[in-house]
Amino acid sequence: MIKRKICFSIIILYFLIGGVQAALPSSEVHAFSPQVIQRGAKGDDVIELQSRLKFLGYFKGKIDGVFGWGTYWSLRNFQEAFGMKPDGLAGGSTKAKLVKATKNMPTKGASNTQVSGGTSAVPPGFSENDIRLLANAVYGESRGEPYVGQVAVAAVILNRIESPSFPNTISGVIFEPGAFTAVADGQIWLTPNDKARRAVMDAINGWDPTGEAIYYFNPETATSKWIWSRPQIKTIGKHIFCM
Fold first, then answer.
1. Are 169 and 161 contacting, i.e. CB atoms less than 8 angstroms apart?
2. What is residue 112's predicted lDDT score, i.e. its pLDDT?
3. Nearest-5° Cα angle at 138, 137 to 143
4. Which of 124, 102, 119, 145 is CA-nearest to residue 198?
5. Residue 40 phi/psi, 5° resolution?
6. Which residues contact 95 (CB under 8 A, 6 or more apart)?
7. Higher pLDDT pick, 153 / 83
8. What is this structure's pTM?
9. Pick from 67, 75, 27: which is nearest to 46 by CA?
């Protein structure tokens, strides 16, 4: 009788634990770190938050990685619209809802994304949202360039992620203040074509026409004297690629 009671208790405990675990929201929202993001915060998490809110039309300000009042009220409006407590805090449930609303993949495993000519597997470490954001950047920055030049722009963004001098996320690199003209003038939000998406996939799969460049500029429009001081690698289309 005692053994039966012990076994029964273990079974009940097992289901109780399982039920609690199922009720808890997942702590893994891969687009963000585990910390609660709140007013006054700075860094990649805030850039990720602002970029997603901007994508949904809630955030109208500059993506600068600083959680100010503009970000606070944008987040509250998002929370209220999605039936959440509008407290202006980006905790686990808010981040999960935001990731779902922006159609980001929940894991870094392989997934599928449509490109011209068929479906291509996204390599581990990337999500469909990553591909979409990269394609936006490539299209906004280089849609008038030859195909190899568009691959080159995507490669520069990926090279920056690997460099300790830059943020280590795609959104962090793209929305780093002053980094890309397309972000400054709003062309980042143009709808990319299949050519830009294919260029992104080729860069992700290892094609780097730049020779590991981390900068590029158009010599006809560049106004920065500093960029001319960077060691130049090669010219592709209208862009000079450099270190």
1. yes
2. 36
3. 125
4. 119
5. 100, -15
6. 29, 31, 32, 37
7. 153
8. 0.57
9. 67
What is residue 159's three-state secondary structure?
helix
Side chain identity, residue 149 = G
Please, are residues 129 and 104 in contact by the beta-carbon 8 Å criterion? yes
In single-letter form, the type of residue at position 94 comes to T
Q: b vs e for 231-242, b when ≥16 Cβ sit within 10 Å of the residue's Cβ?
A: ebbeebbbbbbb
pLDDT at residue 24 in the model: 35
Structure tokens that stand for 81 in this block? 């619209």
Retrieve residue 220's tokens.
Answer: 């006809």
How far apart CA 66 and CA 44 sit, in angstroms, is: 9
Which pLDDT tens digit goes with each residue over 173-183? 999 998 999 99
Q: What is the mean pLDDT of residues 70-90?
A: 90
Q: What does the alpha-carbon distance between residue 16 and residue 10 come to, in Å, rounded to a whole number?
A: 10
For 216, phi and psi rounded to 5 degrees? -150, 155
Beta bridge partners of 239: 236
